[in-house]
Amino acid sequence: MAIGSDQAIDSPDVLLTGASGQIGVFAIPRLLAAGFRVVAVSRRRRPALYDGNEQVEWLNQDQATEVAQRCRFLLSAGPLELAKKFLLAGETFERAVVFSSSSVETKQASGHPAERRQVEDMLSLESELSTVAEGRGLKLVIFRPTLIYGCGMDTNISRLASWIKRFGFMPVNGAATGLRQPVHADDLAAAAVTALQSRADLPRVLNLCGGDTLTYTDMVGRIFSALGKPVRLLHLPQWLFVLVVNITKVIRPGTGVNSEMVRRQRLDLVFDDRQARGLLDYKPRQFQPVAGDFLLPDVN
Question: To which CATH superfamily is domain 13-294 assigned?
Fold first, then answer.
């Protein structure tokens, strides 16, 4: 059990944004197991497995804005803009756990203007959330996870898996020795529920990493293994890989890949999560993915 946690929750309401997203799909069963009633906010329809479940109320954003008035807890696994919207709308919140991203640190000096703007917006929203929390006297913790995987909805690990399944090989930037710490979405959901239950005063920001620190090349190799495919890496010099990406963007815009992503394969993107491990008894799994980690989970 985490330090300072309280299992006697008395079934309070928790507003969950991003309920059908990569963290939300794992968070709902964990919240129910912990005794919460869940107000699940999503643009998608209620999944069939929650039909008739009185402990899960599935609403869109407009409906949830009114219901927020009765919720004591907020778990934001969606956009930071939504977290701000609901914190301002709900005056009864006592504690909020909000997911941001470790990219607010790794992309500040990106050579890609859109990435820098995205980071600036996220940092600004984190600051605004802190201001709201201080003004309301509610307890807020912002999580900054590393590379998320676990249900096929991420745009990093799952994108690599999709490429491997389609083409059977993966181009990488030279030796691609930059270090990574991929983290499973279910481990993040577990940490979020523990933070909601905690009676301790948590830091405003906590890093959440995976259980392994490994090179980009090794990470990709384990994805091949998870898919039951032989590891086939095409080691390209950085200048050539960047050129190919830039040409591809002109021919096929909207691929979601840019030259900065290629360059970062040589950079260490690692963080210290010892605070989370100590305060939340956070024990993330090692990166040993299986084929099911690239599919939506069975949460029955």
Answer: NAD(P)-binding Rossmann-like Domain (3.40.50.720)
